[in-house]
Amino acid sequence: MRIESIALAWFRGAADSVALDAGSKSIVVYGENGAGKSCFVDAVEHVLNGGRIGHLAHEYSGKHQEKAIINTHSPKEKSAEFRIKFKDDSELRVEIQRNGTSMSSGAETIAMNTWDYQRTVLRQDEIADFIRQTKGNKYSALLPLLGLDQMEVAAENLRQLAKTVEQEAKLTEIKFKLGELRTEHTSVFGAATDGQVVEKIENLHKMYCANKTATMDPLARCKELEAELTIRIAGFSADQKRHLTLLAVADLDLKGHVGAVRTANGNLAGAVEPLIAEKLEVLETAGRFVGMLKDEKTVKCPACGQSIAVEAFRAHVEAEKERLKTIIETFNIRKTAIGTLCDTVKSLRSNLGKPDVKSWRDGLVKGVFADNFTYLEGLNIEALRISCSEDELKRVENNLLPLREGATLAAENAPPDVQQLTTDKRSLEGGRAFFEATALAGSEERTSSLVSFLGSVEQGIRDEIRLQSKKVIGDISSDIQRMWGILHPGDGIEDVRLSAPESADKAIDIGLKFYGVEQDSPRLTLSEGYRNSLGLCIFLAMAKREAEKDRPLFLDDVVVSFDRNHRGMIVELLDKEFSGRQVLILTHDREWYTELRQQLDSGSWMFKALMPYEKPEIGIRWSAKTSGFDDARAQLKDSPDSAGNTARKIMDIELATRAERLNVRLPYLHREKNDHRVAHDFLSQMISDGEKCLQKKGATAYEPYAEAIVAFRDADKLLVSWGNKSSHSFDVVRNEANKLISACENALEFFDCPNCKKPVYKLNDASAELVQCQCSNLRWRYGKT
Amino acid sequence: MVKDKDWVAERVNESRKAHPAVTDSSATRIVELVKGKVMDRQLTTTELQEIAKTLLADIEPTASPKTDMTDAD
């Protein structure tokens, strides 16, 4: 949808309403630096980026950038606003309150806020942004163009879902518990087969629960068996009970559990160190990232307090979670190992505190194990659970392992029936661990399979994304190459292309050949000017992909770093690739502006010049003329020399382009002088040729256009005298400079027809002997020279 | 350029061949999800948790554990 006009009031540099009327055509707007041309682009960006303007992002611009968006000198009763009118007569109106919040209305069918900024506006400072971006950001920028947003969303959702399933099912904990149960089962049954374990429990059940024959699940059977063993233990004598307890203590794998905690401590320490380094890097990255934010939907970062975009914040948190996954697992393993050790210590204290072993204990408390028992009784097991340092582990080893060994020694002479019952009890515990593990393994297997399944679906979608992106990237690369070829014909840089690296998902890179040598990045060899040129090609290639949407393109001062040779090719590029699109070019380059006015088709392009900016109360103003002499007039007051010099420079450029269109041939000058012609050279030749060639329609026939020649002479005379003085001796006064400007402006107006107002450039003769204005009132006959 | 949603459903069924433990109801539910909101927008944490719980409920076995024993007697 083409833009008819953009009207601003008290928005940025504008005062009372000023409108860029493009009339749905493409347009070139000239204005020197600070004239206010970018304010029109700012209005567009304000809509596209949800009320924020990227280049205004600053901690001092206010929460809603109100300190930069609203004219600093706007009257209190006035609110800032802008209106964007479209070809279908719909109009988007955006009113901005004093606090910077905005309300928009109208043009709903255009849905301008859905236009992608990166494919609508290209500014001078953004031209090489795409090249500088990371592979991932390049991918994100291209994603909407690839048409794969939905698939990317689906893949990402599936990835998140797989993680959530893992968390909801506590898969990590289940796996750890499973490991513990299998360890316990193996410690009792070794390499016995599942059948042998089942048989062992069956036999024990038969032996101890002979009167119970009902069909039961294995865990219920274990429970029944345990109850029967408890009854039997209750009937034991004091001596039997003492031996039973000592055997239970001897069974505690205290040494093994201390070792497990020690290993986990080591693993955790190893993981923490790199984590700290990574955290620092993350903070630095976050800092840089915040500086580049453009989105208005922001949140305060809990780490640094800065505002960052919600989407980016979400991605950042996800990345952090992923980064922490390994260390969280390590942390959990350590926590569980400490828990097991603490439970073992608790069991040791409980067993050694039983009345059954009082006589054995009393004998030791007064002997060599006095300190050990004191340690055991005073040990704060819950504190140990929270902090289990290496020092604490050593104290546990030094004090508690001797007690366990003492109990093991004392239990050696246990009666056979106690030993048997202890062995059977151990078998029962191992069997129960086996059955619990079996049940848990089913759950773990099902959950893992579900997680793997979700991962597989995600991967399938990602494979398809990669396949499809390659095709689209190939198409865009062809466009880039073609456009590059137009801008840089015959250069040694070729095969410029986008590519998706095989080694990474969601990544896009730029490659090229530099004088036949393959380069992985344009940053390795291209100069800044060439990078900017490539940035322009990439922007235009991406914008071209949306040709069917017929959205306008804004090029805001994008040729600053282009040399004249390459800058000149942009017209050809726009002509060949974007003849059907509305393009809005804003430039402070007067020379290029003049060239564009001469080269671009006036039927589909408009040209406007802004007056130099004077003050905020006056705001942005259009010049009545398109030639830019208002720049010179603005200098009259303070610097007449500069004014005269500017007028002369304008004439140098304007006359050079006119001479080319009129086929005016200048006498050859020796060497480089031939390439450095000035206004006087052109004008004197045009006076000489024009007496014969420039004609105006008379009553019955074409007649020499005498008034034009007089105007040319007047201008030439002043250029030679005051124009040169302005440039070289700097002693032109204001009135002289003013007269010079008026004479130059007047002379140029004679190249346009006084009737149809069109220039005399229309080739209207098959033999190419003349050019004329649109209504043929005015003509220039080549053949008459 | 966007792949139609039926393709994604086919992709889900294709993946299932390598995951026989995934139940019919789970696979059907994922197909429905992928054709629906999973493809339309980024899901919230709450939504993900709800879906995860449903999927986990789907895979709960209805039969007794395979290690069930019957008394030889």
Give an overview in words.
The complex is a heterodimer of chains A (785) and B (73). Chain A has 785 residues and is an alpha+beta fold. In chain A, strand 11 and strand 12 (517-519) form a beta hairpin. With 73 residues, chain B is an all-alpha fold. In chain B, helix 1 runs antiparallel to helix 2 (24-35). The radius of gyration of chain B is 17 Å and the shape is flat. Mean pLDDT of chain B is 74; it is low at 63-73.
SSE blueprint:
The complex is a heterodimer of chains A (785) and B (73).
Chain A: E1 3-9, E2 18-21, E3 26-30, H1 38-48, H2 66-69, E4 80-86, E5 91-96, E6 102-105, E7 121-123, H3 129-132, H4 135-146, H5 149-168, H6 171-189, H7 194-208, H8 218-234, H9 238-251, H10 254-291, E8 298-300, E9 307-309, H11 310-352, H12 358-365, H13 370-378, H14 381-386, H15 390-410, H16 416-487, E10 493-499, E11 509-514, E12 517-519, H17 528-544, E13 553-556, H18 564-577, E14 583-587, H19 590-599, E15 605-609, H20 629-633, H21 640-661, H22 679-693, E16 694-697, E17 702-704, H23 706-728, H24 734-749, E18 762-763, E19 770-772, E20 778-781
Parallel strand pairs in A: 3-14, 3-15, 7-13, 13-14
Antiparallel strand pairs in A: 1-2, 1-4, 4-5, 5-6, 8-9, 10-11, 11-12, 16-17, 16-20, 18-19, 19-20
Helix pairs in contact in A: 5-16, 6-16, 7-8, 7-16, 8-16, 9-11, 9-15, 9-16, 10-11, 10-15, 13-15, 16-17, 18-19, 19-21, 21-22, 21-23, 21-24, 22-23, 23-24
Chain B: H1 5-17, H2 24-35, H3 37-40, H4 45-58
